[in-house]
Design brief:
Elements lengths: L3 E4 L1 H10 L5 E5 L19 E5 L2 H15 L5 E6 L6 H14 L3 E6 L3 H13 L5 E3 L3 H5 L1 H10 L4 E3 L2 H5 L4 E5 L1 H16 L15 E6 H6 L6 H6 L2 E3 L1
Length: about 240
């Protein structure tokens, strides 16, 4: 018996469109009910189930954390991949979170390496004082380019995944990828043993990680509040 594992709404939607019989396990930050992957979180129905993060809540939290580290910024950019199925929804969530904190939000789009370069130039032209980005497979794959450009433009940035902070990004906050993949693996194993996706509720990760890079903060002339340092899961010095 085969099982398909898909990361992100776009990939999960494509997998569901390809088969109604092979079990599918997804790991996504989007709402699987809103995008028609499952009938409900508790009773998925059909051949699809998986793990879904609280994307809207997380983006609001990242804005709050960014404010703590970069209190003087009032213009912030949000980088989004327009080809992502949840681009419009993620942008709307970012706009709402930014408005709550009084930020002017610059929305920049990129679906290629060249467009990423252009996006940073746009942020600089509009005097952006910080950057948040959509959780997107393509943008994740361009980690080194994104971190390098943030350093080149002296742009404070907060990311979803800890590997960005480990690679030199200022900070990251999001669900633990290890924890989410553990849940995906548990469901995959159960399906391979004959369990039915329709009977497995969509799970939500419960572990979140805050990683701070003090080397990058120093290079940017920023001081991380002691209260934030005390709550961080990892501090890079």
């Amino acid at each position: 018996m085969a099982v398909l594992v898909a990361t992100g709404i776009t990939a999960a939607s494509a997998a569901k469109a390809a088969t109604s019989t092979v079990p599918i396990v997804f790991n996504t930050g989007g709402d699987p009910v809103r995008f028609g992957l499952v009938a409900s979180l508790n009773k998925p129905g059909g051949n699809v189930t998986g793990v879904a993060s609280l994307g809207k809540v997380l983006v609001a939290k990242r804005f709050e954390l960014f404010r703590e580290v970069v209190p003087k910024a009032n213009v912030v950019a949000f980088l989004v991949n327009p080809n992502n199925a949840v681009a419009a929804l993620d942008t709307s969530d970012a706009q709402a979170a930014a408005a709550t904190l009084g930020y002017k939000l610059i929305v920049v789009k990129a679906s290629s390496a060249g467009e990423i370069d252009a996006a940073f130039a746009t942020i600089a032209e509009q005097r952006g004082g910080g950057l948040l980005q959509q959780l997107d497979p393509f943008l994740q794959s361009r980690r080194d380019q994104l971190v390098e450009l943030a350093a080149r433009y002296a742009l404070p940035a907060i990311y979803e995944r800890r590997d960005f902070a480990m690679a030199g990004g200022l900070m990251s906050y999001g669900t633990s990828l290890r924890d989410a993949l553990r849940l995906v693996g548990k469901y995959t194993g159960g399906l391979l043993k004959g369990e039915k996706p329709a009977n497995l509720p969509v799970q939500q990760p419960t572990k979140f990680e805050l990683v701070l890079n003090l080397r990058t903060a120093k290079a940017l002339g920023l001081t991380v509040p002691p209260s934030l340092l005390a709550t961080a899961d990892e501090v890079i010095e």
